[in-house]
């Protein structure tokens, strides 16, 4: 899981953080109660995982499970409730100490081993039948734990083993963010209010607001201007670390009606296998709210559209040069008959992300 936490902003020149520094910042962010409170309180997230684990009880009963990035240990406890013989709950941050207490409180210490350490450095006494992990970050891959899940899969999972969730998909749609529209129009209203003309501030406001930040916001259904377009899919049984260096795909949308496109909205789903219908955890604006919200990418200029106006192009998600845990998103896009535009977005400076 993930959440943006504001840090003090330093004017220091950007530099690539070494991997240990990146990891330490990342794991430290999980040492506070707030992020875990937010994740457990996200009922869409937590209930979907609980249902997915219980629905796979036939595959889990009597088996060995590895929980990657176990946090408070809630998924490990769900696995014991589904009949797991043994769960190895691996957690690198100090929240592992609380997980030990929670496991003991639930009288499961004989079946859940909390291992405090980084997944890539710990040792397990046996191979596992199941991997469960809540690894997803903003826009799916920002500070996600997917690299660790892939490492665990390749080192510890038995052939034919179960991975929960087993698939992730990325979607995009054009939106009209009305709040941004109102903020840009604000400067033209000042004269009527105070008899001081500040309309020249509009261009400055546009540069500040429609910048290169990946903005994590709740997008309302009314703001979405087309059906979503799926542009990428990851199969957790086969995806490689090399493929995560560039997750890209084409998108094609057709607008519902007359409006103005001022941003693109990106979200994800993950799918859990099931003997019946697969379970899907969705962060779509068309579905109930989750703590992931949506990733909003503001265009440099709003573009007026009509019904059936095409919004199309290519999106590429790749790690930042400064920190491999941070995601950048490059978009090449064309709206209607306008010329092709390109823009690269990143999580703003002075922010870190926290995870489960």
TrEMBL record:
This is Protein arginine N-methyltransferase 6. PANTHER family: PROTEIN ARGININE N-METHYLTRANSFERASE, PROTEIN ARGININE N-METHYLTRANSFERASE 6. It comes from Chanos chanos. The keyword Methyltransferase applies. It comes from the Eukaryota. It is found in: Nucleus. The lineage of its organism: Eukaryota, Metazoa, Chordata, Craniata, Vertebrata. It is an enzyme of class 2 (transferase). InterPro entries: Arg_MeTrfase, PRMT_dom, SAM-dependent_MTases_sf. GO terms for molecular function: histone H3R2 methyltransferase activity; protein-arginine omega-N asymmetric methyltransferase activity.
